[in-house]
Design goal:
By secondary structure, this protein is of the alpha+beta class. The protein contains 4 helices and 4 strands, in the order H-H-H-E-E-H-E-E. It has a domain of about 30 residues. Pfam families: PID.
């Protein structure tokens, strides 16, 4: 597996050393929601008029209707990584590279996978079996 070389003396930008917290995500999403004031009400009114050609999908759950985009994907597997405290962005990137190296089949071997639909909205990400 290929890995990026890092050294203890390499300098990172200030953003990489800050923890990537749920609070920051909530703050950014909150800003987006205030910018799009009224957008969701208009979308709900137009919801019944959409044609099948559209890539947008409606997922119905007992408590909520959500609009989002549906992607066809291949699920390769999962693994667990342990990290103490709030990881930095660079730490999360290293974790992602480690996870891929654990899951991905060696070159020349077949990669086991399962076809799934990946539903992405401003509210959540869902993996749906097909």
């Amino acid at each position: 597996p290929r890995r990026k070389g890092t050294s203890a003396t390499s300098e990172h930008s200030g953003d990489e050393d800050e923890p990537d917290t749920d609070l920051e995500t909530d703050r950014l999403l909150g800003q987006q929601r205030t910018d799009d004031h009224g957008f969701y009400d208009e979308k709900e009114k137009e919801g019944g008029k959409k044609k099948g050609r559209n890539k947008e999908a409606m997922i119905h759950e007992p408590a909520v209707l959500i609009e989002g985009v549906l992607f066809r994907a291949r699920y390769l597997g999962s693994t667990q990584l342990v990290c103490e405290g709030q990881p930095t962005k660079s730490t999360r990137m290293m974790q992602a590279e480690e996870a891929v190296s654990r899951i991905k089949a060696p070159e020349g071997e077949t990669q086991p996978s399962t076809e799934v639909d990946l539903f992405i909205s401003t509210e959540k990400i869902m993996v749906l079996n097909t």
